[in-house]
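Honest question from a wet-lab person: if I give you the sequences of every part of a complex, can you actually get the arrangement of the whole thing, not just the pieces? Trying it with mine:
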Amino acid sequence: MIKLIGLVVVVAGFALRFNTLLVVMAAGVATGLVAGMSFNEIMAQFGKFFVENRYMTLPVVLMVPVIGLLERHGLQERAETLIRRARAATAGRVLLLYTACRQVSVALGINIGSSGGAHATFVRPLVAPMAESAARARHGELSKATVETIRAHAAAAENVGNFFGEDVFIAVGAILLMKGFFAAQKIEVSVWGMALWGIPTALMALAVFAWRCHRLDRQVANEAAKFRANEIR
Amino acid sequence: MTLITLEWFYAVIGAMLAAVAVRIARDRGHPKRWGSAAFWALLAAVFVFGKQLPPVAVGYLVLAMVALAATKQVERSQEQTAAREERASEAERLKNGLFWPALLIPATAVAGSLLLARIHFGDVRLVDAKQVALISLGGGALLATIVALRVTGAAASTPVAEGSRLLQTIGWALILPQMLAALGGIFAQAGVGEVVAGLVTRALPTQFPFVAVAAYCLGMAAFTMCMGNAFAAFAVITGGIGLPLIVQQHGGNPAIMAAIGMLSGYCGTLMTPMAVNFNLVPALLLELPDKNAVVKTQVPIGLTLLATNIALMYFCVYRF
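Yes, you can. This is the full assembly:
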């Protein structure tokens, strides 16, 4: 039971809004101490795993220079121009289309950004500006809160598309991890079976996201109408 | 032997992070000049020398970074990018040419993943098959930088300056994923998962097949929310709840259990600020004032899909 102290530290630390890095390190130190490690051993563990997992930070650091450069030269503005020409576009439809494309491409094994890298390459410079621009083309100027709602949904579009398309492809990390887990337990499980059973949830995820997009469009329309009314007054 | 390893890319990243530190140190108007410069310099050192340094030394460097962040010494600079009018006129000048470098990154990543691992000269491989996806992605980003410089005609220092500005927008949250991975490792060594699984089995009437399914799916989601990572939860919860109850006690199908179980974990990923790469970093990248805005947007989606997964698993896992 005492070993759960790390989870307690995490939950309490978040609730009290301490710095997240501090919370994570404190949870690790507390858990290590109750498990009988010395402070130096715990630091060595942090060092070992921190170095082993440098790959997690690789995509974002290598991508921000080129994305920042392109943004300085008008990448977002160009994406906005293109979307303004498409009459049928709404914020919700742009996002739904992106999620669908992302799900299908990930399911076919084409991963455009692992470890959340696609947020830097696609969402910030392209998807979010396109969705905002579609809303502006329809409703005129938007309030700050509306823009923030659209942006948060753009990040969600990427996560839903990525997570729930991924497991349909057999060579993806998750499927291989499951295969490895069962192999260690001496249970024979086919990767195709696991990939196949990922499909119903993948379809359901797209349906749920379509409903969210529909609600987003209604919310944007309402907020934009209110915003205009305030402007006139 | 392999010719190109991830260590090369870590050296490039280290150089980029060192450039961030130098830019901050030279920026007199920076709100937290020396604390921020020290943070990025320490991180650069860990990236370049991580393999050579003893783990305990890296641990203390990490501790120093955490101390700087916790005492609010790490802040972003006041630098601004080009004004909107300037960006709009550049967009008018460059038109769709702006998209090519951005699309080159995924294109190179995919092509590289398919081809690079097959290239070898006798026993000497070009890249390690396990690292090929990340190497292709990193190579794609570097290639795209070169093409973008040609397309825009910008100075070679511009990507460093803009990258530095964006990295400072993310700030200390950049190292949170690595910290959480370390926490997961320590939890695993201390045997936290076994304790959780033991508690669940004792507390719930798991002789009912539905309770077993619900406990497994909810356990995957909840443990993922605490750890920020469904992969870490999978081994613990499947070993502790899924296998003994659903498969061994009630005769469920392991493939269906694992597939839907992992996706239940992803529902948890949608709902937790601990999934930093997916929920927190994007909020910072999109410059949202509420850091939890992405999580809040995703909670209804996560809950709906979690309920669907429980129903789906209950109806399928004991039948097929």
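Two things worth pointing out. Residues 191-317 of chain B form one domain. The beta strands of chain B are 2-4, 120-121, 124-127.
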